[in-house]
Amino acid sequence: MQGIRVHQFGGPEVLKLEEVPDPKPEPGQVLVRVKAIGVNPVDTYIRAGWYGERQFPFTPGVDAAGVVEAAGEGVTRLRPGHRVYTAGSLTGTYAQYMLCNENQVHALPEKITFAQGATLGVPYGTAYYALFIRTSAKAAETVLVHGASGGVGIAAVQLARAAGLTVIGTAGTDQGRRLVAEQGAHHALDHHAADFLRQLMQLTGGRGVDLILEMLANVNLAKDLGLLAKFGRVVVVGSRGRIEIDPRDAMSRTACILGMTLMNASEADLKQIHAALLAGLENGTIRPVIRKEMPLADAPRAHREILEPGSHGKIVLIP
User: Fold this and answer.
1) What is the DSSP string of 10-60?
2) What is the pTM of this model?
3) Beta partners for 4?
4) With the C-alpha atoms ordered 175, 179, 125, 274, is the resulting torsion angle positive or negative?
5) Is 49 exposed, middle or buried (0-12, 13-18, 19+ CB in 10 A)?
6) Overall fold of domain 123-263
7) Which helix (DSSP H) or strand (DSSP E) does residue 243 occupy?
8) Neighbouring residues of 272: CB distance < 8 A, sequence distance ≥ 6
C-alpha cells in the first residue's frame, strides 16, 4: 500500500509518499481501508517534533474514515464492510490502510460522507470535551468561540447551539463570519475590529460572556479575561507561544482558566464524546464542513495550508 512516512522531524517537506507493507490485524485490532483523512494542526506539531520523541519512520495522522477490511480475534462490535470513522490509530491515518484498536473505531451513519467522517475525531471531540467536560457548559449560558470558522470552531458552534447556549463566534474575514453564522452562531463578530469589545459587551448587556473557547491563547488570553462575566471560564484549546496576563482580571471575576488536550481524556470521557457525536450525526445537529479535498500526495501542501490564517472548514486528504 501507499502511505506518508516521516523519517525525521522537520517542515512539511519531510512528508514522503512511499510504498509500505500492508498491515494485518492482531487480536482486538481492526484493519480499515481508508477513504478520507482529516488534517489537523496537531498533525503538523507532531511532524515538527513539538510533541516528544517518535520512532522513525512513522505515518502521521489521527482522524480518518473508511470501511472495515478485517477484524482481529476478539473484536465483536465491527465486521468487514462497516462504514466507520476513527479517532486515533495504531499505524497512522495518512495511508491507504490503517490498524486501530477496536475502541478507536466508531460507526459512521450512511448519510455522512467519508470526507465528513474524517473531520470528526479531533475537531468535534475537542469541542465537545472543552464545552461539556472541561467547562460544564449549560443551556442559557453565553459562549464566545474565538476562531469559529476553523475545524474546532465550527464544531463548537454547532454543539453549543444545539445545547441551548447563546453563541458568539469570531472570524477575521467576511467569508468566515458568514460561515460562522450559517453554522448556527447567534452573532458573528470580527475580532480585528476596533470596537470588538464594545460590540461584545453590548450583545451581553454589559455583563460579558460565561465561557470562552480560545484557539490562540498566546494572542488573546490576556484580553479574554476582560470579556468574562463573573464566574466565567476560559478553556485554552490551542496556543502557539507564551503570553503575559494580569491575574487580577481573573481574581475580580472569580474566573477560571482551564487547559485541555484531548489526549488526556479518560476512557469514560471518550465514550461520552462519541455517543454524543453519533447522536448529533443522526439528528443533523452535527454537519461537518469540508474546505478542500486533496490527494494524499499533497500532504505537504495540506500541512502548510492548515496553519494559514483565515481557515474556513477542514482540509481532507484522499488516498
Assistant:
1) -SGGGEEEEE-PPP---TTEEEEEEEEEE--HHHHHHHHTTT---PSSB--
2) 0.94
3) 17
4) negative
5) middle
6) Rossmann fold (3.40.50)
7) none
8) 133
CATH architecture under which domain 2-119+288-318 falls:
Alpha-Beta Complex (3.90)
Q: What is the pLDDT of the chain when averaged over all its residues?
A: 96
Parallel, antiparallel, or unpaired: how do β-strands 256-259 and 228-236 relate?
parallel
pLDDT digits (tens, 9 = 90+) for 207-251: 999 999 999 999 999 999 999 999 999 999 999 899 999 999 999
Is residue 132 helix, strand or coil?
helix
Could you tell me which residues are beta bridge partners of residue 293? 316
Q: How far apart are CA 16 and CA 40, in angstroms?
A: 18
Of 316, 297, 301, 315, nearest to 18 by C-alpha is 297
DSSP letter, residue 75: -
CB atoms under 10 Å from CB of 257, counted, come to 18
Segment (H or E) for 4: strand 2-6
Q: Where in 56-165 does DSSP place strands (E)?
A: 63-71, 83-87, 97-101, 105-107, 142-145
Q: Which residues of the chain are under the pLDDT cut of 50?
A: none
**Nearest alpha-carbon partner for 214 in 194, 240, 196:** 240
Domain ranges of the chain: 2-119+288-318, 123-263
In angstroms, rounded to a whole number, what is the distance separating the alpha carbons of residues 256 and 137? 13
Q: Are 77 and 12 in contact (CB under 8 A)?
A: no
Q: Got the DSSP string for 144-173?
A: EETTTTSHHHHHHHHHHHHTT-EEEEE-SS
In angstroms, rounded to a whole number, what is the distance separating the alpha carbons of residues 144 and 142?
7
Distances, alpha carbon 162 to alpha carbons 134, 176, 283, 286, 303, in Å: 18, 20, 10, 9, 31
Q: Is 164 left (phi over 0), alpha (psi -120 to 50) or beta?
A: left
507493507: which residue's cell? 21
Query: What span, in angstroms and rounded, lies between the C-alpha atoms of 32 and 68?
Result: 4
